[in-house]
Design goal:
Chain lengths: ~120, ~110
């Protein structure tokens, strides 16, 4: 079975450029999560969606970050304009949406470097 | 200047020995506690979870213990193998919070041959 698919795996771009990260969740999973991982702050939840609707975006650092989920099989995380401090590994995860806790399944991440 | 990153605690064990990884959690209202394993260059991988009304749960070669009195969670790995080398994270899930997780800082497990 295909897991969570993220693209690109690596992105190197210059400060000020727009960056778009993509995620395809596991088929049938109705919850989708975006995380950022850095050595300084560890693994942080940025935003999550249930049934394509953003539920909690309190972890989004600032207005330069935006996330969308136009349909059940695709989500994007966009940074515009990008800054060097945005350099991190960005993970997408998905889980079934049920009455209680369900394990989140992670993709292998996008390693983003802003020069 | 150079930024200072998180210094992950490291546990070194000999192959074949048992490993115990510890985690202190913060929220006594958390409903589920979860362990994830992250290998280099990969995303976190779910290992095992335990509900707050339990104090022990066993999986294949792994056991999770929960002590709510002192807000402590541990992961025991039996007969540790080189493939167990990774960073291990504990995480908490709050009731009514959907599947939202709060992750700990992680522990690096190194298995020596």
């Amino acid at each position: 079975d295909a897991g969570v698919i993220q693209s690109p795996r690596h992105e190197v771009t210059e400060m000020g450029q727009e960056v778009t990260l993509r995620c395809k969740p596991i088929s049938g999973h109705n919850s989708l999560f975006w995380y950022r991982q850095t050595m300084m702050r560890g693994l942080e939840l940025l935003i999550y969606f249930n049934n394509n609707v953003p539920i909690d975006d309190s972890g989004m650092p600032e207005d330069r970050f935006s996330a969308k989920m136009p349909n059940a099989s695709f989500s994007t995380l966009k940074i515009q304009p990008s800054e060097p401090r945005d350099s991190a590994v960005y993970f997408c995860a998905s889980s079934p949406l049920a009455g209680g806790w369900q394990p989140q399944h992670f993709g292998d991440g996008t390693r983003l470097s802003i020069l | 200047g150079e930024s200072v990153g998180l210094h992950l605690p490291t546990l070194s064990v000999q192959e074949g020995d048992n490993s115990i990884i510890n985690c202190a959690y913060s929220n006594s209202a958390s409903d589920y506690f979860i362990w994830y394993k992250q290998e280099s260059g990969k995303g976190p991988q779910f290992i095992i979870d335990i509900r707050s009304n339990m104090d022990k749960r066993q999986g294949q070669r792994v056991t999770v213990l929960l002590n709510k009195t002192v807000k402590h969670l541990s992961l025991q790995i039996a007969a540790t193998q080189p493939g167990d080398s990774a960073v291990y994270f504990c995480a908490e899930n709050m009731p009514g919070g959907g599947n939202k997780l709060t992750f700990g800082t992680g522990t690096q497990l190194k298995v020596e041959l």
